[in-house]
């Protein structure tokens, strides 16, 4: 069908103009689907969709003075994808001057941060002033602090420690708490300064702090914190300690997981600190992404490596090293503000879509592959993101086809809307009971879609009852093409094109099969017509005409014959007779092919070999055998018929060896067997005594050991009995012994 055609390969095109005529036996067009169809078919009837990207919304970049700030363009992209095809497009970002920023400063108030609090109090209002001068003029600020859950083992619950956790060091500290929101985000810098000045240091027991509780409430309590909808949301998190995370609450018997909800009620203090566990890193990530918050972790050198790992898990987060007294906090905020980390919500990526990207940062000369991050973005500078999108398959579900390209430091985003080109436009135009389909089917995109029980290019065939469709009967396997694309399937039978034959048109009349080297499946073999010296080629093992006898003739020998007349030519390779080898069977490997001398001494070894194994049959190849006696053996007269290809043993006392040589002469060697040779020793006679000796020695050793143990035990028992007879026992009274019961008399009792 047309739909299957455009999904098969991105270069395939379908010609929807029908060439079928009702009175014709078969269609004139061999294939509706082809890479050449677009060139052979009228363009008005070609179905060949291509992947493309259309910018549905593409507003120009704006300035801060305009009502709507635009830093990303285009804003909406419609991506039309064909299976296997690729589309590329760019997205640009330009930084606007004085883009609004909401900055929330949250600080660890454990006793080790005393110097940092003093520095922040010293900065006070000047902190906001420096941010306005170095970052953006449109800055609003808020302030909050945290310690940890006021429960053992995180914080001491001793009454005196709850009032002043620094009492042991003779310092005055504020009572411990979980998280306290002290100043909402606003442009009132005097209120920010006053809030910082009114803050006192506190303390707890363990080293990790409850900063995750604070971050979760800052993220989800937008109303209380005061986040603006059109501003960048930055959270500056300062600490010198590690953090508690999910499941740590079990140490204090807190079993309920963090619910990711706002709980800032009484005096803007986190009032579920003792009831809910710490949030997990995944929960913080989700909260930051949902509320578009960029966290900035300003931490000391000792815990820098820990928070660097956290940066990999929370998108668009920033980590930098905080000076011992926090005097570099302005530069940290500026560096984070000038960094842009974009992201794609891969969770919503449609099924069967592959996306790759690269980034060209300002002042960069090369693209950064698989990166969406840029540093030191100045005002007015532009960042370009290039996306390459490919559809590897048509989706099988109706899941969301929309993705967002955005950043947690931006309120803007780019929407990717996906549409899949898996169906032809002509598929919706159906001609029912078309006469061109023998009135047994519908005409769709120029091809017949047959009704149940009918098949064929124009539905002229009736299905049989063998269990296979007519088209399946024209395929040698489920994955093969119909008639190997060398013919047409007419009612279950392949009608082959010119120069092809076979049940599936898999054999070529001009030399070889055209599909993946398969044989002809018991069909008439391919006809080999080419010849050399009037001798035709023959088929190889895959049915191709590549074999010829000329490849079995030694070219260096003008008088050579096929395989030197010592073998058969099998597909250009000589298969030699047993006595010959070599590429052309030109070498004889048998001793019969060699010239030998008729001397007894040269065959003495064979005679001795035969004589050395009486009663056993041997076969040894010899050069020549002479009818004469050996110098040191007596000849036995008589004429015995000898085997012509063996060296054997006669079970009588006479043994012979014989073999015909290349001159067809026959000679015998006679060996007289004598009885003076010693007989070999039977191995059983040697093995049995050795085994019996080992067994006997083992039994003797066991008996001796048992006798010794019995004698030793008897002697020890006698010694024990003698000691018992010499023992004397005496009877005495324990001086501290008291009777178990005591009698008391009531002095006021008067008996009757």
UniProtKB/TrEMBL annotation:
Keyword Metal-binding: no
Any one of the GO BP annotations: cell-matrix adhesion
All residue ranges annotated as the Integrin beta subunit cytoplasmic domain in the record: 706-752
Domain Integrin beta subunit VWA: 1-424
GO cellular component: cell surface; focal adhesion; integrin complex
Keyword vocabulary terms for this entry: Cell adhesion, Cell membrane, Disulfide bond, EGF-like domain, Glycoprotein, Integrin, Membrane, Repeat, Transmembrane, Transmembrane helix
Disulfide bonds, paired cysteine numbers: 2-12, 5-41, 166-173, 221-262, 361-374, 394-647, 422-426, 445-483, 450-459, 489-494, 491-520, 496-505, 507-512, 528-563, 547-552, 569-574, 576-585, 600-609, 606-677
Spans traversing the lipid bilayer: 684-705
Protein's UniProt name: Integrin beta
Species this chain originates from: Ciona savignyi (Pacific transparent sea squirt)
């Amino acid at each position: 069908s047309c739909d299957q055609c455009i999904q098969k390969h991105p270069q395939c095109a379908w010609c929807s103009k029908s060439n079928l005529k009702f009175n014709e036996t078969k269609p004139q067009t061999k294939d509706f689907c082809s890479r050449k169809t677009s060139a052979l078919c009228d363009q008005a009837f070609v179905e060949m969709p291509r992947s493309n990207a259309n910018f549905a919304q593409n507003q120009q970049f704006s300035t801060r003075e305009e009502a709507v700030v635009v830093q990303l363009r285009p804003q909406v992209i419609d991506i039309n994808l064909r299976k296997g095809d690729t589309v590329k497009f760019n997205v640009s970002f330009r930084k606007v001057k004085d883009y609004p920023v909401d900055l929330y400063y949250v600080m660890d108030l454990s006793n080790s941060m005393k110097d940092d609090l003093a520095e922040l109090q010293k900065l006070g209002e000047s902190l906001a002033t420096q941010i306005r001068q170095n970052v953006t003029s449109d800055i609003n600020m808020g302030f909050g602090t945290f310690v940890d859950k006021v429960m053992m083992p995180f914080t001491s619950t001793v009454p005196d420690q709850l009032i002043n956790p620094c009492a042991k060091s003779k310092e005055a500290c504020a009572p411990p708490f979980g998280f306290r929101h002290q100043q909402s985000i606003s442009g009132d810098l005097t209120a920010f300064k006053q809030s910082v000045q009114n803050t006192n240091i506190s303390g707890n027991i363990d080293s990790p702090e409850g900063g995750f509780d604070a971050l979760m409430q800052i993220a989800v309590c937008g109303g209380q914190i005061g986040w603006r909808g059109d501003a960048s949301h930055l959270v500056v998190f300062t600490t010198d300690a590690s953090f508690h995370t999910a499941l740590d609450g079990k140490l204090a018997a807190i079993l309920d997981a963090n619910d990711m909800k706002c709980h800032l009620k009484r005096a803007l203090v986190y009032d579920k600190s003792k009831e809910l566990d710490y949030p997990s890193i995944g929960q913080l990530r989700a909260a930051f992404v949902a509320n578009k918050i960029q966290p900035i972790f300003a931490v000391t050198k000792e815990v820098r490596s820990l928070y660097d790992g956290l940066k990999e898990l929370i998108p668009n987060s920033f980590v930098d090293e905080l000076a011992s007294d926090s005097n570099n906090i302005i530069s940290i905020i500026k560096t984070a503000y000038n960094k842009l980390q974009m992201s794609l919500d891969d969770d919503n990526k449609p099924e069967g879509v592959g996306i790759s990207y690269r980034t060209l940062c300002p002042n960069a000369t090369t693209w950064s592959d698989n990166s969406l991050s840029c540093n030191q973005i100045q005002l007015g500078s532009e960042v370009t993101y290039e996306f390459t999108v490919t559809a590897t398959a048509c989706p099988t579900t109706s899941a969301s086809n929309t993705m967002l390209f955005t950043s947690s430091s931006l309120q803007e985003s780019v929407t990717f809307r996906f549409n899949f080109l898996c169906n032809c436009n002509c598929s919706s135009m159906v001609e029912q009971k078309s006469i061109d389909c023998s009135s047994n089917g519908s005409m769709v995109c120029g091809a017949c879609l047959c009704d149940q029980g009918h098949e064929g290019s124009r539905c002229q065939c009736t299905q049989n009852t063998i269990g296979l469709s007519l088209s399946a009967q024209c395929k040698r396997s489920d994955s093969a093409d119909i008639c190997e694309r060398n013919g047409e399937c007419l009612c279950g039978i392949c009608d082959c094109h010119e120069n092809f034959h076979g049940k599936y048109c898999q054999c070529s009349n001009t030399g070889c099969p055209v599909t993946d080297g398969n044989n002809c499946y018991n069909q008439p073999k391919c006809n080999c017509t080419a010849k050399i010296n009037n001798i035709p080629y023959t088929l190889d093992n895959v049915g191709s005409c590549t074999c010829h006898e000329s490849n079995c003739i030694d070219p260096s020998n003008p008088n050579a014959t096929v395989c030197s007349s010592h073998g058969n030519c099998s597909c250009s390779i000589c298969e030699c007779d047993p006595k010959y080898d070599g590429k052309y069977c030109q070498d004889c490997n048998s001793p019969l092919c060699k010239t030998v001398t008729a001397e007894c001494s040269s065959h003495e070894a064979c005679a001795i070999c035969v004589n050395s194994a009486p009663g056993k049959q041997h076969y040894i190849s010899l050069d020549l055998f002479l009818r004469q006696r050996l110098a040191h053996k007596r000849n036995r007269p008589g004429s015995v018929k000898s085997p012509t290809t063996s060296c054997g043993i006669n079970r009588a006392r006479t043994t012979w060896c014989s073999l015909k040589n290349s001159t067809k002469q026959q000679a015998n060697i006679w060996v007289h067997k004598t009885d003076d040779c010693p007989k070999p020793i039977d191995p059983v006679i040697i093995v049995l005594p050795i085994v019996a000796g080992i067994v006997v020695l083992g039994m003797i050793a066991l008996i001796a050991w048992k006798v010794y143990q019995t004698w030793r035990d008897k002697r020890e028992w006698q010694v024990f009995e003698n000691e018992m007879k010499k023992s004397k026992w005496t009877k005495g009274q324990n001086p501290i012994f008291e009777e178990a019961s005591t009698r008391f008399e009531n002095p006021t009792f008067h008996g009757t």
